[in-house]
Amino acid sequence: MTESAGRRFAWVLFGLVVLLLGGTMVASVLGARTSGVGAEPLGGTGGEVVMVGAPGLTWSDISQEETPTLWALLESGASGGLVVRGTHPVTCPADGWLTLSAGQRASADTDGAQDCAGVPGVEVSGDAATVPGWEAWQEAADRRPLDSRLGTLTTAIEDAGGCVAAYGPLAALGAAATIGEVTPYAEGGLTAYEPGGCAVSLVDGGVIAGPADAAVLDAELAGLRDSLPADATLVVAGLADRGEQAGVRAALIWGNGVPAGALHSSTTQQTDLVQTTDLTATVLLLAGVEIPAAVSGKAVEVVPTEQAATERVDDLQGLTAAIGGAQALAIPVLGIGVVLALVALAQLVVTGQRTATRVLGLWAMAFPSATFLAGLVPWWRGSPAWLPLGLTLLVLAGVQVALALLGPWRRHPLGPPAVIAALTVVVLGVDVVLGGRLGLISILGVQPLTAGRFHGMGNVGYGIFAVSGLLLAGFLASLLRSRPMARRTAAALVIGVLGLLLVLVDGAPMWGADFGGVPALVVAVGILGLAAAEIRLTPVRALLIGGAAVAVAGVLMFVDWLRPPGARTHLGDFLQSVIDGGALDIVLRKLDQSLGILVRYPVSWVAVLVLVALVWAVASPDSWPGRRIAPLWQVPLLRATAVAVLTCVTIGWALNDSGIAVVGIGLAVAIAAAIAIGAAIAVPRR
């Protein structure tokens, strides 16, 4: 490929990326989203709120034939998937009820040990009950960074002049006040419920282990529904996991004023996906009680739908299977893929097959975006699910590699990697801007079962997106700077525009809502831009770039903070915590989580060692590792691009909890690109 053809290719690829990302942003601002469009808030009817907790209840348990009552609630009410995550990876029934009570993740343990088989007993005296372990559980909660206050739900209702009734021992955990006492209380669960006693009634629906238990629950729900006052609202929720497998459970809200549709929460920003803490806020809203700050959830909304119940259940079962499958298959698929790739790479290097090595590097670059595109194919409906998922990933990555090698740009070492990087940036960027639906069910996505993120830019996605974006900017700038001292302005312009798009996608509160990644990107783009313009990086310029990074992050937080409290993301909430004086606690908690990963997961040290080795190699070209990658530097701006990438992942690691994931996946993308380029440098031009 001639120099002029390389420049034309660079401008065309740059234009396509800007057009696709910019156009998607405009469409998003105009209302084009994949989730939450048309969501309507619930309003309190003034009647009783009856919350039936059925830990383990899953959408696969519900059918028209076996659970007709639940099916009827679905037909005329609002439904969705429920993320039940408490303080442990698997949520026990008691943990789920305590999380409802606190409006924040909680658990029934004092030393981190779980006993999901045992149901904590209560001491009954007349129409009152006491939870014996309450004080110890609260002391344990005080030692955790989440600041859970058990009994928040009942305390808020009692402060407003109401009361919370409990029916059954598990319901007592949800209804107990801050001292662990419940009044009124009755044994018997669903069969003991009596209407009209309190503003809110919590009912123990029993633990659901399968369809047979769901059928028993359904029969008892029929009697309860018939006894409800006309203005009552019924909530049914599978508040805990089943056995040792975390998963998305079922949630239903039915009553006057509740439209038929899909549940939506501003905490997840995903239609059909809410959290247990959102149910706490929803119960308070329906009861006409102000939601206290201790409740981390938000009252759910409803997206009206005209779908038939069969279609709704099919969608919910698919979402449940996709999210659960993505988490269960992530480590096996990635582990096997890495091992096979390393074995293949070793074989190709030993045999000197440079063309095949180049293809392998490109395939590894394309794999991350393929895991997101796989969400367009219902692989989770296959049995076993890993087989259709694996085949889908192979095909999607292969298609990208074929596209990268199709045109005349294949003759330049940077041509195919630039195409793969552009595809990756567009796939992940468009998904985030439109609502993050693909990231929700990707093995490299946000992993919603951990309840860390449900939308926006997660750490793994950020590592892929940011590094691919920096590689693309560096590659295009290099193609434009094909002659020394030539086209500096064009190269710097391309880096600046792409950098702006990357920052907006990652940091804008309505899209990526990522705080820690923005400063890392701004600094990295600044370093790369100076190199493209052939301006030396001095200490003063480094300070100016750092100041710009802080300013950009601050502006994004301030913009989010200007929105109503219920509409803010964690960006605006953090600024509010700065105003309230609680920011230091948040920073220390995130630092503890980030450093704790290195202790709990020793394998994460591999990423640290690789980072150190690469920094050494890039900073010291004459060192042993530096000489191994020195041939790459014959490509203009490639060393500056490597410096920008290493800077980005290092700062991203420091500013994000679980930030080591940024290092691991980001370096994997960069190394794959280096392999493809290194193999192509010695490939004869055709």
From TrEMBL:
Ranges that cross the membrane: 329-350, 362-380, 386-406, 418-440, 460-480, 492-511, 517-535, 542-562, 598-619, 631-654, 660-683
Keywords from the named record: Membrane, Transmembrane, Transmembrane helix
Name under which the protein is recorded: Uncharacterized protein
Lineage start: Bacteria, Bacillati, Actinomycetota, Actinomycetes, Micrococcales
